[in-house]
Structure formats: structure tokens, C-alpha cells
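Q: Please design a sequence for this.
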């Protein structure tokens, strides 16, 4: 991470015209502090005429010192995997519903970002997963995930049958609707809905969570982060491999899915005083009394 931040990339929620006003406000604020501003090419059409440089995510990865995402957690998920390999830290301004990842409020956006430009922020390294599909021994598809890699049956009523190995050692064979390999960040996403544990994002682990397993003895298991997970698909009518909300591949019988930790973590920046437990209390409504 380069600090102080000399060039900041701004990325807004896609297909959301109302993002223009706060994004232009933030861009003007940043420019007023002497920081160079780059705007995402898919956000730029909503901003009208302006003097800011327009760039692709790939170009942002090469030139930006910091990326600020205005949107919700879904927007952040779409951006992290593109910028993390370039070691660009990210901060999020929440305009979505939950805000587990985009934790800067719109009301306090300018003073909070101003403080972060002065070095008043908390840095957090978060695990990414990489996965590839091997078909007839050759790699056919690959992608990165910030929350989870999910193998799931499609519209067919029958379950999938698959075999799981960890670091080359056979673990089990099971019938289920699917299987989730989740990062600590993803522990509060689909894995939580499937019965997985909530995991602090500082932990260096991968959680393996079956989706509606046929055998009740098949339970979530926590793996060391350097584990290599292999899933051999024995039977499925139609199934897919999904990476967060941004990438999807079809898989079929005989495919082997290999999941492992991506070498480069994602770097998130939070305002000073950030607390993961406060976020849980607020977003999961643990502070409510009934």
C-alpha cells in the first residue's frame, strides 16, 4: 500500500444514476485536497461532463493508490477481485442495505475520507479464494472470490453427488444440493444461511459448508487457509460454480473443482474506531430487544 494517497479511484454502483451526486461531491472534495481522481469507466456516463480521468479497472489497478467504492456490499464484491491482485486498498461508502464491507456512512463521507487521507484509518487484510475447473485433465475455467466459491445444483430436483479431498486426502463422499467454500468475510453471507459459523475476518481459515446435505452427519468444517480443496463431481443433472455474485461457470459430471487461497489478500481500509463486533451487532440486529 502506498501512503500518502496521491491518486484515488472512484467506483460507483453500476446502473444507478443517483450515484452521480455523491460521487461528484466526493471527487470535488478529493481534487480540492490535491489528490488525483480517476473515475470508473462504467460509472462515468452518469456523471455528465467533468474533468476527471476515466479508466478501466485494469488501468485503476496500475495507477491508483486507493479505491473508494460507493454502493453496497455487492458493488464491493465485484471490485475487490479485480483490484486486490494489484495491491490497491479499498474503502467503501455504503449506499446499499447491509454494509458489512462498505462501512462509511454517506452522511459522514467527506470528514471520514478526509481523515483517512491524513492516515487516520484501520487496515485489514482479508483472504481471497481462487478456484479452477479441470475438465478431462485440463483447466477450463478459473476465477477469484472474496466471499465464497459455491458449487450448486441448478433447476433439477435431484441432488448432486460429489467426492471431497483436502490436501490430497479423501475426506468424504456426499449427496447434497451443493457445497460452499467460504472465506472469513463470506462467513456472514451464503455460508451463514446454510448453517456455517460466523468467523472473524482476521482469522486465516476456509470454511467448508454443505448445502442441504442428505446425511445429517455432514456438518460444516473449518480448514487451515493453506489447504487445497478438491471436489470431484460424480453425478449432477445440471450444476454451476459461482464466485460471489460476479462470475458463474457450468460444471458437469467428471469435472474436478480445485479451490485454494489466493496468494495476495484484499486490503480494506476502515475509519478509526472500526469494530467488527459493532458491525455484527448493528447489521444482524443483535442490539434489538424483543
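A: Design:
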Amino acid at each position: 500500500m502506498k501512503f500518502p494517497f496521491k491518486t484515488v479511484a472512484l467506483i460507483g454502483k453500476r446502473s444507478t444514476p443517483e450515484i452521480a451526486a455523491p460521487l461528484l461531491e466526493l471527487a470535488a472534495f478529493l481534487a480540492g485536497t490535491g489528490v488525483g481522481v480517476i473515475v470508473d469507466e462504467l460509472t462515468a456516463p452518469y456523471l455528465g461532463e467533468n474533468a476527471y480521468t476515466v479508466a478501466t479497472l485494469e488501468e485503476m489497478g496500475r495507477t491508483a493508490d486507493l479505491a473508494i467504492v460507493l454502493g453496497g456490499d455487492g458493488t464491493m464484491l465485484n471490485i475487490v477481485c479485480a483490484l486486490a491482485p494489484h495491491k490497491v486498498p479499498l474503502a467503501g461508502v455504503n449506499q446499499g442495505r447491509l454494509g458489512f464491507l462498505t462501512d462509511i456512512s454517506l452522511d459522514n463521507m467527506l470528514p471520514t475520507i478526509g481523515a483517512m487521507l491524513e492516515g487516520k484509518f484501520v487496515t485489514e487484510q482479508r483472504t481471497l479464494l481462487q478456484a479452477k475447473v479441470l475438465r478431462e485433465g485440463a483447466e477450463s475455467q478459473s476465477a477469484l472470490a472474496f466471499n465464497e466459491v459455491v458449487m450448486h445444483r441448478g433447476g433439477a430436483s435431484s441432488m448432486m453427488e460429489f467426492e471431497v479431498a483436502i490436501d490430497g486426502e479423501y475426506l468424504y463422499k456426499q449427496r447434497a444440493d451443493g457445497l460452499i467454500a467460504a472465506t472469513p468475510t463470506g462467513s456472514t453471507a451464503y455460508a451463514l444461511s446454510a448453517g456455517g459459523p460466523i468467523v472473524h475476518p482476521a482469522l486465516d481459515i476456509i470454511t467448508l459448508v454443505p448445502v442441504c446435505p442428505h446425511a445429517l452427519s455432514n456438518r460444516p468444517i473449518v480448514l487451515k487457509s493453506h489447504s487445497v480443496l478438491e471436489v470431484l463431481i460424480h453425478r449432477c443433472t445440471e450444476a454451476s460454480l459461482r464466485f460471489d455474485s460476479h462470475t458463474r461457470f457450468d460444471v458437469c459430471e467428471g469435472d474436478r473443482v480445485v479451490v485454494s487461497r489466493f496468494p495476495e489478500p484484499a486490503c480494506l481500509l476502515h475509519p478509526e474506531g472500526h469494530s467488527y463486533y459493532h458491525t455484527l451487532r448493528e447489521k444482524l440486529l443483535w442490539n434489538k430487544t424483543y
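Q: Thanks. Anything notable?
A: The domain at 7-127+265-283 is CATH 3.40.50.10330 (Rossmann fold). The chain has a mean pLDDT of 93.
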